[in-house]
Amino acid sequence: MRRALSLLCLAIPSFASPVLGFEHSVEYRFSGVELTGFAITEGPDEDPALLSLSLLTDSMGPITLEIESDLGFGDCAAVLGMAQGDPGTSIVLQADLNARTLNGVTLLRCSAH
């Protein structure tokens, strides 16, 4: 009985502990020539900012992509503006959908290569 009780006491903390290391991110890659337009809208009060992208792809036609971010978009507008229309540039956007922010979303990466 005593042994069973001690094993139970050891097992309880492992069941009650939070999940560690969970990350959910999404990465988008597209060419600068596929980017036909974009707009950044700042959210009111506690709402996240919104990045709306208009893409035109050969395989899927016109696409609208929207990404929210609690921490804003920094210099992403400048990066997208320089890359837009350039066929030799690839754009990479990475969004964290499990961020430790108020709404749980943020843009981790906005780069052009």
Can you count the helices? 2
Report the span from N to C terminus: 65 Å
Number of strands: 6
* SSE order: HEEEEHEE
The overall average pLDDT, rounded, is 87
Radius of gyration: 21 Å
Q: What can be said about the biggest beta sheet?
A: 3 strands, antiparallel
Portion of residues in beta strands equals: 35-45%
The class by helix and strand makeup works out as alpha+beta
User: Would you identify the regions where 5 or more consecutive residues have pLDDT less than 50?
Assistant: none
Molecular shape: globular
Strand order of the largest sheet: 1-5-6
Count of discrete structural domains: 1
Signal peptide: 1-21
Keywords: Signal
Structural account:
- This protein is of the alpha+beta class and 113 residues long.
- The chain has one domain.
- The strands form 2 sheets. A 3-stranded antiparallel sheet has the order 1-5-6, with helices on one face. A 3-stranded antiparallel sheet has the order 2-3-4, covered by helices on one side.
- Strand 2 and strand 3 form a beta hairpin.
Quick structural summary:
The protein is α+β, with helices and mostly antiparallel strands. The chain has helices at residues 2-16, 76-83; strands spanning 25-31, 35-41, 49-57, 61-69, 90-96, 106-112. The protein is globular.
Task: Please name the defining characteristics of this protein.
113 residues, alpha+beta, three-stranded antiparallel beta sheet, 20% helix
Write the layout of secondary structure elements.
Elements lengths: L1 H15 L8 E7 L3 E7 L7 E9 L3 E9 L6 H8 L6 E7 L9 E7 L1
Antiparallel strand pairs: 1-5, 2-3, 3-4, 5-6
Keywords: Signal
